[in-house]
Amino acid sequence: MNQSLKRLLFHHYKKIITGLIILIAGIYSIQTMTGIISWQKDYKYFSSEKAHLNFQKQLKDSYEFEDQEKGKIFLFYDLKKEHAIYTDDFDTFKDYSLTIFNSNEDANQQRFNAYPYYNEHFIQLLIVFIIVGILLFLIDLKSNFNTLLFTSKYKRSSIYWYKYYYIGGTLSLTLFVSKALSILAYRFFIPHDYLNISLKQQVFSSFSGWLTLVSLFILSSFLGLIIGDWLFGIAATLVMFFTFNRFLLNIDFISQTFFNTQVEETSTVSSTVLNNVLPLQQVSIRPINYLPLFILVFSALLVLFIGQRLFEHISLEDRGSFIIIPKLKRVIQLLIIFYGMITFSAGTFLMTTFPNEQLILSEQIINYTKIFFTFIIIYYISEFILFDKKPIFLKKINL
Predict the structure, then answer these.
(1) Radius of gyration over every alpha carbon of the chain, rounded to an integer in angstroms
(2) How confident is the model at residue 177 (pLDDT cuts 50, 70, 90)?
(3) What region, left, alpha or beta, does residue 155 occupy, with left being phi > 0 and alpha being psi -120 to 50 degrees?
(4) 3-class SS at 198?
(5) Per-residue DSSP letters for 95-153?
(6) Please, where are the H alpha helices in the chain?
């Protein structure tokens, strides 16, 4: 092991390492303490006379609402029985309210994987992991740190793996330890009957979330590796951040259009295709989707080793280009066009080509024209940012 390189990189990254440890451990510590303290507070409340009196008052108030069963309180919407569940029994209401991981029949928990007294703040952690991943290589291009390393005696492969050793290792180890301590805390301070999840379920689903975040960090770092321009790199990241939800919704739309063979009644609580195929985000009693998790992990490992080969051949002369590796530009262009068309035109194409009600000819022409111009715009944007090529009409007006 190259001790001098390790010391150099540790000195360079030590503030970032400290900040990441504090951030991730802090998120889990606050979430765990807040959840457990909140549960204990509610448990104490439900054991008081005040809770009984308030429950009786809610039963009386239920007669004033037309959309509710008289003399009962709403609990949840049962997906299997497809109707709302009400109760007039205080113990049933208490047990449901205090149970953290309720059964899969609960529509809210089934759809959103959301549980009372428990929240791993997956979206916040996802943002942290993606941003750190992108900046892992991109930030050193801006600071000229790579110039120092590339002109030194150190092998590029060693530089590459030590970056992951310090930053990736810090993220993954801190997340793993934080998840483990959170699991232990919940199992120690919450009675098992109210926790309502086996240790196996808790560990496996938590580890699934850990693999998901670590894999997305690696995939994001590959993106930061091939980006050579800060301005375009940050702009592209922001565009993806604000459009990725729309991209996923259109993927869901495509899946339902072509692969959903069963005709289902419209339901506000039905699970979407994406909820059924994506890896779990956090601890859950829902089954783990092993295939997409395997694909995600395999993709991360693949780009991890491909990234090393690319890193060994990066030329600092290509800094300033959107993609620092010229051979990848056409591939990236195809991905940009694919992402852009799915995001901005898939819905219009499906509703025009497979409409619920037949569209008149003029509407079809307008919609297909929109799709065509969307393609042209995305194509020329990709030509400009990747190859610095402007459309002919812009050249003629000197833009």
Answers:
(1) 26
(2) very high
(3) beta
(4) coil
(5) HHHH-SS--TTBHHHHHH--BTTB---HHHHHHHHHHHHHHHHHHHHHTTHHHHHHTSS
(6) 3-46, 49-61, 90-98, 107-112, 122-142, 145-150, 156-163, 169-189, 192-195, 199-226, 230-259, 273-277, 290-312, 329-353, 361-387, 392-396
Torsion of CA 170, 175, 178, 181, to 10 degrees: -110
Reported as a single tens digit per residue, the pLDDT across 299-317 is 999 999 999 998 888 877 7
- Eight-class DSSP state of 320: T
Q: Strand pairing of 73-78 and 83-87?
A: antiparallel
In angstroms, the CA 83 to CA 325 distance is 56
Q: Helix (H, G, I), strand (E, B), or coil: what is residue 355?
A: coil
From the list 164, 303, 319, the residue with the least C-alpha distance to 227 is: 319
How many Å separate Cα 57 from the centre of its chain?
Answer: 42
Residue of 146, 165, 166, 164 whose CA lies nearest to 156? 146
pLDDT digits (tens, 9 = 90+) for 230-254: 777 778 878 887 888 788 788 888 8
- Give the Cα separation of 273 and 257 in Å (integer): 11
Rounded Cα–Cα distance for residues 344 and 154 (Å): 45
Q: How far apart are CA 117 and CA 185, in angstroms?
A: 13
Cβ atoms 279, 122 nearer than 8 A? no
CA distance 253 to 178: 36
Angle at which helix 122-142 crosses helix 169-189, to 10 degrees, equals: 160
pLDDT at 300: 95
